[in-house]
Amino acid sequence: MSSSCAELVHALPGRWRYRLRSATPIQWDRLEQELQVSLQIGPWRWRLNRRCSSLLLEAQQSQPQQQGWQALVAALERSGATPPEAEVVHVKVQVMRDRPSWRRRWLMAPANLISFLAASGLLGLAALLALGGILGLILPLAPGVPLLLLAFVLVETAFRLRRPFTATAAA
Question: Are 115 and 161 spatial neighbours (Cβ–Cβ below 8 Å)?
Fold first, then answer.
């Protein structure tokens, strides 16, 4: 498929620059002849740059890019251009262990326990405030919304207290 021989590098309204690549050497004279045959149908101007292996395609009137693209692909096929092989990207993967040493875990255990107890207490208090807030919404002249907002703040605080001690989710 010769469409992978031409890569769109730059585009403006009515003007496109393609980089031409081929696994076999491009026969520039033959490609030029094929382009003259393919692009004589419409109001197209083109300039072939052999040194940079590029083609500038310009529409003199408002022509769709697809028309010029099809003519370019056909000219590349007839001139014998073959697509280059796909580039292989090598990715090196290294597993990073974020597991603390046994000493650090042993030293962090009291902080983890204190954090757990504080978060549990905050969540219990938030549950009571949420119940009071719901009752406050039902009963007239009772402060329901401020109690619900305070319950929300307490739940968020409990989550922030536990965040350093919880494991991150595996991607």
Answer: yes
